[in-house]
Amino acid sequence: MLTIFVPKEKLPEMIGRIMDGARVFAPVKEGDGYRFRLLDRPDKADLTYQNTRLSPKELIHPPAEAMFSYSLKKGDPKEGILEEIPKALGKRVVWGIRPCDAKAFQLVDINFITDQYVDPWWQKRRQATVLVGLGCGKPCSTCFCTSVGTGPFDRSALDVLMTELAEGYVLEAVTEAGEALLAEAPEGTPASASVLAEAQAVAEQAEKSLPRLFVPEPLKEKPMTELFQAAFWDEVQFACINCGTCTFLCPTCWCFDIQDEVHQQEGVRLRLWDSCMFPLFTLHGSGHNPRNQKLQRVRQRFMHKFKYYVDKYGNGPACVGCGRCVQYCPVNIDIRRVAGMMTASCVCPT
Amino acid sequence: MKNPYLPYPVRIQEIITETQDRNLKTFKLVFLNPDDEAAFAYMPGQFAELSVAGQGEVPIGIASSPTEKGFLMFTVNRVGRVTTYLHNMKPGEVMGVRGPLGNWYPWDEMKGKNVVIIGGGFAFTTLRSSIVWMLDPAHRKDYGDITVVYGARNPGMLLYKDELVAWEKRDDITMHLTVDATDDPQWKYNVGFVPAVTKEKAPSADNAYAIVCGPPIMIKFTLPVLADLGFPPERIITSLEMRMKCGIGMCGRCNIGTEYVCKDGPVFSMAKLATLPNEY
């Protein structure tokens, strides 16, 4: 597919031109971190970032989605009847997303787009969004993407893969949508063989720098109830304070709550991010709670990502190795270590 | 494809107080748009999200039978915010229904079999749907003997009392009504817990399925009785409850291992449950 080279000084020009026909989101520096924001100026995109603190899942699955509105006014002919809130779901480009975070969208697609039901907001935003990925030339110490089936230059969930070189960027179209984006780009020139070789070397170097900490394959074979009853959960849960930071930052955590909010005589039904770390997540009206204990909630998070998801969809694990939960966990619970315990196979001497 | 989160608007046609503690009310709901009734094609065992604008949603088993046209029926226990508000609504008011949701009792698999229905307390709702559906002339020939064991704390806590009396009088269904205790001299049925009455009446497991719904304690003590009678786990069916929001397998909270109770359930065989983590 089409591959072009864009010199660094020309990139803002290219982003600016794309902004004329689409809403463009890119990493923007905010305080001491980065976050994906809608660009109002192309030079606000800061591609020197390592990764954003909050994953870009918020672009497809916002923390608060106003789904329906209604009137509660007595005598209003539409009193109490819910109506869909119109949304601007037009063409969007996410510029500079890391390949792992794009992979997360693919993993979550299975949950929101099924044969029986389709989540309209997730699907429409996904369809309207072109993903221009930025390969990770220098992965962080907490990255483990290659251990979970993706990688720093994984093209599989992207429309375009960008590789940063000293003088500029190599942009490789992966899909037709990506090709369309690059087809008429006066800022670039067709990538030469030497540029391609250089990009290849960057990718290989990055992949080599990442250790493979565990292999997820044994997860399929292990019986669900055996892993569920494993003794190590007690140790894993010990320090957890159920703060929910891991699920909040995780690009593959999709769980949500539905709540009504009323202002005067108008109301909205909201879909809000929720977390399996919270006891209220599973509390029955009767007071019974199947995951009342911290151990049960901690186990649910890891079992969902590394076992339930794998068994249910024959896919995954539902983790892309971005390392956010490792970096920001206040008590240093390390998903890499837990995954290691879950995947360990021990051959006992007979 | 229809937005799966958007409820059908319905009007409350009738509200019936079912039990003497006034904590269980039955709501008869009529679709505002007649076309929606055809779209809401359901089977006994399924549930729906009842939606009240400004309050929220609550998952409730469908108590009416698909053979009853023109309305939907739900029996609601007053527990939290939405159900308390519902209990205070009036006929004529507008609310919403989203569904039908979940799977249903294995009606195809049970064809040609005897069906033993064991219910306790207010879990009798989808069992009522099932009985009405099986007794309908269009379906009665598909099933063999129908035996029902239904118990409540006392006579005043039984649901659908008029129908229970009517079914008692029929010869194509065997009813065993029971209460935990009563000093009512008019009570002419059984006294005793559901597991004990099941043991005493000993419905045959021969060519039979058992559908068991009730409080956890009732299920716990009924399962060994059914095992002794010879019901294998594959032919003991139950329906589970969970905190739910979306009802369509997306919001992530109601799973037991790999299974979402809202979409893969709520109906499971005991054989299936034995393969899942014991977390419900």
TrEMBL record, chain A:
Key word Iron-sulfur present: yes
Residues covered by the 4Fe-4S ferredoxin-type domain: 229-261, 306-338
Molecular function (Gene Ontology), one example: metal ion binding
Protein's UniProt name: 4Fe-4S ferredoxin
Alphabetical list of SUPFAM superfamilies matching this protein: alpha-helical ferredoxin (SSF46548)
InterPro entries hit by this protein: 4Fe4S_Fe-S-bd (IPR017896), 4Fe4S_Fe_S_CS (IPR017900), Helical_ferredxn (IPR009051)
Keywords: Iron, Iron-sulfur, Metal-binding
Translocase recorded as keyword: no
Source lineage: Bacteria, Pseudomonadati, Thermodesulfobacteriota, Syntrophobacteria, Syntrophobacterales
Source organism, top-level taxon: Bacteria
Organism: Desulfacinum infernum
TrEMBL record, chain B:
Amino-acid positions noted as binding [2Fe-2S] cluster in the UniProt annotation, renumbered to this chain: 246, 251, 254, 262
Biological-process GO terms, alphabetical: pyrimidine nucleotide biosynthetic process
UniProt keywords, alphabetically: 2Fe-2S, Electron transport, FAD, Flavoprotein, Iron, Iron-sulfur, Metal-binding, Transport
InterPro entries for this protein: Cbr1-like_FAD-bd_dom, Cyt_c3_hydrogenase_gsu, Dihydroorotate_DH_ele_sf, Dihydroorotate_DH_Fe-S-bd, FAD-bd_FR_type, FNR_nucleotide-bd, OxRdtase_FAD/NAD-bd, PyrK_electron_transfer
Gene Ontology molecular function: 2 iron, 2 sulfur cluster binding; flavin adenine dinucleotide binding; metal ion binding; oxidoreductase activity
Cofactor(s), names only, from the UniProt record: [2Fe-2S] cluster
Highest taxon above the source species: Bacteria
CDD domains: sulfite_reductase_like (cd06221)
FAD-binding FR-type domain location: 5-107
SUPFAM superfamilies assigned: Ferredoxin reductase-like, C-terminal NADP-linked domain, Riboflavin synthase domain-like
One Pfam family, short name: FAD_binding_6
UniProt signal peptide: none
Cofactor: binding comment: Binds 1 [2Fe-2S] cluster per subunit.
Stated name of the protein: Heterodisulfide reductase subunit F
Species the sequence originates in: Desulfacinum infernum
